[in-house]
Amino acid sequence: MLIHKSYNTVPPQVDYTLTEFGAEASNKIFELVDWLETNLTGILAATKTLRKSTALLSKIAQFFQRDNKYESQISQFTCASKYKNK
Fold first, then answer.
1. DSSP string, 38-49
2. What is the pLDDT of residues 35-67, one digit of tens each?
3. φ and ψ at residue 32, rounded to 5 degrees
4. Other CB atoms closer than 10 Å to residue 64's CB: what's the count?
5. Is the peptide bond before 11 cis (omega within 30 degrees of 0)?
6. Global pTM?
């Protein structure tokens, strides 16, 4: 991806240049950075919504795990729903 060229001089001199492959990769990285900058607000909003949804589902699961008496009611509802949809 890089071409390294050193010169036998005092002080030492070194040049680095991108290969064709390196230049293509560099362009793709810059495109990704531009896309991220353009869409960052939406990405953060989606992440926040996902975290809220996950937290809510976790609380619901904890509620039902605390009290097993709901387990049979949930099972009955699930079975009844399956048969209604047929």
1. HHHHHHHHHHHH
2. 999 999 999 999 999 888 888 888 887 777 766
3. -65, -45
4. 13
5. yes
6. 0.52
